[in-house]
Amino acid sequence: MFTSNLHSPYPTMPVFVFSLGSCNSVFRSSLCQSDCFTDLGDISAADFETVWSFGQEPSRNTPKAVVSTDQRRFECLDRYFRAHLKDSKPFNLIGVNYESLAQLRSESSPYDSPPELVNWLNATQFPVVHLVRKNPLDCLVDQIVSDPSRFADDTTSDLDVTTALARVSEMQRLVIRFRHWLAPANQIEFQFESLLDVKGEISRLAVHQFCGLLGIDAGQVKTRRVAPSTGGANQAFASRLKRQLRPAFMRVGYENLFQLPKAA
User: Fold this and answer.
1) At what angle are helices 116-124 and 70-84 packed, to 10 degrees?
2) What is the sign, positive or negative, of the torsion defined by CA atoms of 146, 148, 150, 151?
3) In the chain, helix, strand, coil percent, each to 5?
4) Residue 18 DSSP symbol
């Protein structure tokens, strides 16, 4: 029996895992070996299309993004998650990709303001895990392999180095922005490369830190190794991209370290 010192208004406790790239699913999948975690997957743009409709009166045909106050927006999010969380296990793990949150903004929200979900998490203090990458090249290659059409016409063409460096700079700005936005949340940040042990599982130190966030006994939490998402032709493509891009990354000082620039 798992007990936690956290309180949830729902039958289960939602845990939100923020990241950019595939490390989010690796983290969640590894933890779902335990009886206390259910992986609800990543929040997608399609999921968010229904969020604001949870704040409408059923009889009125009003635009789904008409939300006038923070309280009203929070009510939409509360109703949405109340309807979608599963109470079969004590904790529901929910993946949040930075880029998907653009779909959750109401039409009245300024672009440079935190998404409503972030404000809601800061207010409710539901637990948040923020995953960042040490190696920007690996993060970029993961994104290209998962969707090469975003960066090149096909997987056999060379990726423009200037485009790659610009994309990495954009990713770094996103990390800084979300680190700032999530600062008031009940959150813990992990560097993904330091999260895994030599067996490819989440290290016991990280498990203890994560369980401390949730207020549960780490001794009851099991993890499992998650196989890499790339293999075969994709793995060969990823290796070629790294060989092509690494010299350019090293010339501008990235090398193998994710050195986040300080926020201005």
Assistant:
1) 80
2) positive
3) 45, 10, 40
4) E
